[in-house]
Amino acid sequence: MTGERRRGAHVLDAVLDVIAERGLEAATMRTVAAAAGVSLAQVQYYFRSKDELVASAFRHVSERFDEKLATVDLSGRPREVLRDALQLWLPLDDERARDARVWLAFSAASVTSPALAAIAAATDAELRIAFARLLDAAIADGDLAEVTDTETEAALLLAVLDGLVIQGLTAPAEQRAPFLRQSLDAHLGRLFA
Amino acid sequence: MTGERRRGAHVLDAVLDVIAERGLEAATMRTVAAAAGVSLAQVQYYFRSKDELVASAFRHVSERFDEKLATVDLSGRPREVLRDALQLWLPLDDERARDARVWLAFSAASVTSPALAAIAAATDAELRIAFARLLDAAIADGDLAEVTDTETEAALLLAVLDGLVIQGLTAPAEQRAPFLRQSLDAHLGRLFA
User: Fold this and answer.
1) How many CB atoms lie within 10 A of CB B88?
2) Which residue, of A30, A62, A118, A159, has the greatest Cβ tally within 10 A?
């Protein structure tokens, strides 16, 4: 890793913190520079616009999710593999809550930005494909007898995940984890019934 | 309706348009005044802060949803009643898409505003109760044999709804309606299996 990449990662980490703690509106080049302890010019070197800053933050969060996904033990039963994979995205601890806040800010911003919407649509499509593959594996194992349309089920899994993130982020902190686990298990329980 | 209330409704409508079309960041007192064709002082008379402006926009959208919900024919089969009710919230036409955009902007803003988070949590709780009642009616009709925990199912319904809104808003316009209907029907189909 070069010194420049390290500095970039440090600035990106500051972007994530500012968005998660103070919201997208607070995430200006100036507040990010202050949070990262670098000059405004250095932030502008990495991000030419606010959209680019938000897109980079989301990409960073997505990449970390992909990295964690690669560590999931695929040798287990497909239902358990799927559960482990989905839990990586739910705000069950502080780090995932920060990432979830960044995702939500990004999703909201993508509604009025065609560039961000394209990234959101592509990421959603990738996740649906990844979920559909896990569902196909479950069908091959004879574990999902009644599911035929894995694409639609994958879209529903993504919807459940996104919707639970939103309810989870506004739920009182002490109710969050049990609520998220119980809801996800109820959906998977019926899917794998 | 007094003249003042009409003027307030006109300003509120401008708030919704600005948030839906240009995002939350663009929704300043000044842009709202310009969009509504009123003075800055008039906008400030209705909203003392940005949070109040966003909260009012969301309340307006919620009230319109409640009004539409009151028009749903409750004499049908609970499954159909539930489907009709849920479709009121999906972005299946321009008006609902505008409302959905306002909801998403509000949800993202509520993550970093305790005042907005309280409104979001209360609204989510109300919706979960309303959905749970519809599910109870379906159970009473013998239409939901395998569901026992209607609270959890109601939370899942809300999650599916919120998640589909997000995927729907970023999907290409021509795919949106068929995607939303097919996904919702798949969830209800399994729920009522």
Assistant:
1) 18
2) A159
- Predicted pLDDT at A183: 96
Number of residues assigned to chain B: 193
Q: DSSP secondary structure string, A46-92?
A: H-SSHHHHHHHHHHHHHHHHHHHHTTS-TTS-HHHHHHHHHHTTS--
B 115-154: CB under 8 A from A:
117, 120-121, 124, 146, 149, 152-153
In the structure encoding, which two tokens stand for residue B1, read together? 């309706």
The shortest C-alpha distance from B74 to chain A (Å) reads 26
List the domains of chain B with CATH numbers. Answer: 1-48 (1.10.10.60), 49-191 (1.10.357.10)
Residues of B in contact with A18 (CB under 8 A): none
CA distance B160 to A64: 25
User: What pLDDT digit, counting tens, does each position of B57-89 carry?
Assistant: 889 888 888 888 888 888 888 888 899 999 999
Residues of A in contact with B57 (CB under 8 A): none
Q: What is the percentage of chain A residues whose pLDDT exceeds 70?
A: 96
How many CB pairs below 8 A link A and B? Answer: 132
Question: Residue B144: pLDDT band by 50, 70, 90 thresholds?
Answer: confident
CA A69 → CA A79, A86, A151, distances in Å? 15, 9, 20
Q: Would an 8 Å CB–CB cutoff place B31 in contact with chain A?
A: no
Are the beta carbons of A167 and B158 separated by less than 8 Å?
Answer: yes
**CA Rg, chain A, in Å?**
18
Residue B162 CA to residue B89 CA, distance in Å, equals 9
Instruction: Give the Cα separation of A68 and A92 in Å (integer).
Output: 14
Please report where in the chains the tokens 């938000």 appear, as a residue: A54
Q: By the 8 A CB rule, do B165 and B103 touch? A: yes
